[in-house]
Write a structure and sequence with these properties.
This protein has 84 residues and is mostly helical. The protein has one domain. It is 67% helix and 0% strand. The longest helix is centred in the last third of the chain and has 35 residues, at 40-74. The protein is elongated, with a radius of gyration of 20 Å.
């Protein structure tokens, strides 16, 4: 006798908020370092974090669009809208 357990689907949250939050954290840290006269290397690190986050935002926008399409195909009751 085999039991049939329901298949647990992996989490697939929207990723754009994570990319924006990371950029905001680096920007806030950079501003704090500017105000307190932080070490230059840390300022460059904060700038690099913000700049690397820019393409990350565009990648996450594409990921979230594909995520909505995947969900629409696998769950017909899920509605696809163009609203962000």
């Amino acid at each position: 006798m085999t039991s049939t357990k329901p298949r647990i689907e992996p989490l697939d949250p929207p990723m754009l908020p994570f990319a924006v939050a990371g950029m905001a954290a680096f920007a806030a840290a950079g501003i704090v370092l500017l105000l307190v006269g932080g070490h230059r290397a840390w300022l460059w690190t904060c700038l690099a974090g913000v700049l690397v986050g820019v393409p990350g935002v565009f990648i996450m926008l594409r990921h979230d669009a594909n995520r909505r399409l995947r969900r629409a195909l696998s769950h017909p009751e899920f509605k696809v809208t163009d609203e962000l």
